[in-house]
Design brief:
Layout: E1 2-8, E2 11-16, E3 21-28, E4 37-40, E5 45-47, E6 59-62, E7 64-66
Antiparallel strand pairs: 1-2, 1-6, 2-3, 3-4, 4-5, 5-7
């Protein structure tokens, strides 16, 4: 799914246009963001693509939604 990642005053945020949903990113698997799983406030877990650590934001990427845990 297409996901726009951007930096806000309160941290990183993910916007999913197809769902018209914007949620803060509350957990990062990898410190540099890219190539790992991020968790959104609503509980969604997204696998982000491998990109260079200093990729400029905002950016739209193709991410994969992982199944819910539990």
């Amino acid at each position: 799914m297409k996901v726009m990642i951007r930096r806000t005053d309160s941290g990183l945020s993910a916007y999913i246009p197809k769902k018209d949903l914007e949620e803060p990113i509350i957990e990062l698997e990898k410190q540099d963001l890219w190539g790992g799983v991020v968790t959104l406030r609503n509980g969604w877990r997204l696998l982000l693509p491998d990109l260079p650590p200093h990729t400029r934001l905002p950016i739209t990427v193709e991410a994969r939604k992982l199944p819910d845990e539990g």
